Amino acid sequence: MSTEPDAPTPSPVETAPTVPVTLSRASNRIAGLDLARFVALIGMMAAHVWMLDPADGSSTLILGLVQGRAAALFAVLAGVGIVLSSKRYLGRGRGESARCGHRGHAAAARALFVRGAAVAVVGLTLGLLSTQVAIILVSYGVLFCVMIPLLRLGSVTLAVIAVLGAIVSPLLSFWARSTWSLIGPYGGNPSWIGLTDPMVAVDVLLTGVYPVATWFVYVVAGMAVGRLVLDTRDADSSRGSPDIRALAGRLSIAGAGMAVVAWALSALAMGPLGGIDAVISAQGELPSSETREQMAVIMSASAYGVVPLESPWLLASSVAHSGATLDLFHTGGSALVVIGIGLLIGTRLRHRGVAMLAPVLAAGAAPLTIYSLHVVVQSLTVNAIFADGVADVGERWMVSSLPIWLLHIAGALFVGLLLWALQRRGPLESLISWLARLAGGPRRSADHGSE
């Protein structure tokens, strides 16, 4: 989740028509990325408040579309945000990061550490709520800190690390959990209560819904994208936006290819190559048309952050939220598609387009604030409805339904409109950016005026 330290979102009259990829010269926000953040927000909202049909309790079609993908998009965008926020100290790209020196890297490291710690604090506080939402923020905070050694790396190196991590980390996770019989998750959302329990750390790092051991892949991939965006935008700034459009197209095509190939390989491995039969046999049952159909239904649902230990064949699946290699490639590829499309739309925005999308862009620029408000509202709603233990049939739509999802989206747009009208970023984003600047110190002198 980005907490990129930008200036307030500008009004349409301040928008520079010659550089349409950004919302304005003053804020230097990249509109396409804020669009992608908004898509991630409403996707996660759908997974939280429109996951079941209130009539019969069956999974909704939109849940199948967003589960695993929306959270992955958030994580990739977090990596993009790390690069954009660190340019204050490391330079804007084209080799500047490699030449920034120890002082610049130390400042960027301090700032990123404080960002991570602050995001984790928000997550631990939200974890005190009684909610069915698996809150991602503590893992995000740890991931921010884990990325510190990678701050000066270029896009190619980061991409290689992401690919190798997607291949190796699920295998290591499976081996470690099998060796030490770590089933997990061992608890609910991490919170201030029970924080000293070592199993909380085990969940965050290895066995939880968003384990750092595999989710770092998304963030590193996002850092590679962020590096490409900075390099391309610097080369592009005097010519409008053709290079950004080309980058957007490449990201979309590469992401779509990754997603499709990963899905196809999973279907091949679990079908014709015998993966589903092996999983069924590992559970002590005989493969049959009935058991295969049942297993297919199970595998179409979401895992709980890690590859189940029943069979190594599950490492070849693309089950959502499993953290298997093909899941990482599929959901990571989907994230690249959304980011590419967002960047492409961003290059086409002019005065009227920015004005029309102002609430969307402002909400996308405040993902931590919007996400936190969403979790609080969802928790209060569910606890009010289930105050007596059981909800009436007529009340179930208030927990999971299309109208509730639309209400959460409307709330996000209202907050975005308010922030845009006040020319402010989200309060949590502003606070964390201030803390990070305090920790990092003054920006590099060579970079004054660049934001």
UniProtKB/TrEMBL annotation:
InterPro entries: HGSNAT_cat. It holds the Pfam family HGSNAT_cat. Keywords: Membrane, Transmembrane, Transmembrane helix. The chain crosses the membrane at residues 35-52, 64-86, 107-127, 133-151, 158-176, 208-230, 251-271, 328-347, 354-377, 397-422. It comes from the Bacteria. Residues 29-237 form the Heparan-alpha-glucosaminide N-acetyltransferase catalytic domain. This is Heparan-alpha-glucosaminide N-acetyltransferase catalytic domain-containing protein.
